[in-house]
Amino acid sequence: MYKLAIFASGRGSNARKIIEHFKGHDTISVALIVSNKKNAGVLDIARDYDIPSLVIDRKILYNNKTLLKKLQEYQVNFVVLAGFLLLIPQYLIEFYNNKIINIHPALLPKYGGKGMYGMNVHQAVKAAGEKETGISIHYVNEHFDEGKIIFQASCTLGQVDSPEDIARKIHQLEHRYYPQVIEALLLGHTMPTGQ
């Protein structure tokens, strides 16, 4: 049985899609939602779906006893980052070796690294005049957005696309593929093919 913890800092639209995808699933369930913001929308989603949640601060995240103990309490054996903005500490990466994944709103290695999240990414993509962008799902290591890439999907951009238009296109890709990739990864199924 796979028990997921979803780490998120914001509204939680990806978390919602993942929860919906695995609702009633035979072997995969969402056991815990973790957020570093006490007013994050993802916590409302956790309440809506009756999933336990945990609000942490930097001190808790970087103190290896507290958070790890909590994750073990909920028997979490796979961690999914869905818009989580803090760097994952070494002790978690070691404990969950190749069992922490992240989704990034660009085609890595482009537009990755510290500070490159959300609208910052879409504005940079627009400013560079890119003709395509997309999503990258990757394993997490000790550096922002540098872990081994598992999956990418792309979409074309028009000259008139604003950063907001780009964000909408990226959300569609994220919502479509993230739950499928998690399932394929955990159950050894064939990965979906990104456009």
Question: Can you give a write-up of this model?
Answer:
This protein has 195 residues and is α/β, with parallel strands linked by helices. It is 38% helix and 22% strand. The chain has seven helices and seven strands; from the N terminus they run E-H-E-H-E-H-H-E-H-E-H-E-E-H. It has a seven-stranded mixed beta sheet, covered by helices on one side. Strand 2 (28-35), helix 2 (41-48) and strand 3 form a beta-alpha-beta unit. Helix 1 (13-22) runs parallel beside helix 7 (163-187) and helix 6 packs across helix 7 (163-187). The longest helix is centred in the last third of the chain and has 25 residues, at 163-187. The chain is globular, with a radius of gyration of 16 Å. The two termini are 31 Å apart.
In short:
With 195 residues, the protein is α/β, with parallel strands linked by helices. The chain has a single domain (2-187), classed as Rossmann fold (3-Layer(aba) Sandwich), CATH 3.40.50.170.
Low-confidence stretches: none
Oligomer: single chain
- CATH structural fold name: Rossmann fold
Q: What is the straight-line distance between the termini?
A: 31 Å
Please state how the strands of the largest beta sheet are arranged side by side.
Answer: 3-2-1-4-5-6-7
Kindly give the count of domains. Answer: 1
CATH homologous superfamily?
Formyl transferase, N-terminal domain
User: Structural class of the helices, strands and pairings?
Assistant: alpha/beta
CATH architecture: 3-Layer(aba) Sandwich
Amount of helix: 25-40%
Q: Please report the number of helical segments.
A: 7
Please identify the top-level CATH class: Alpha Beta
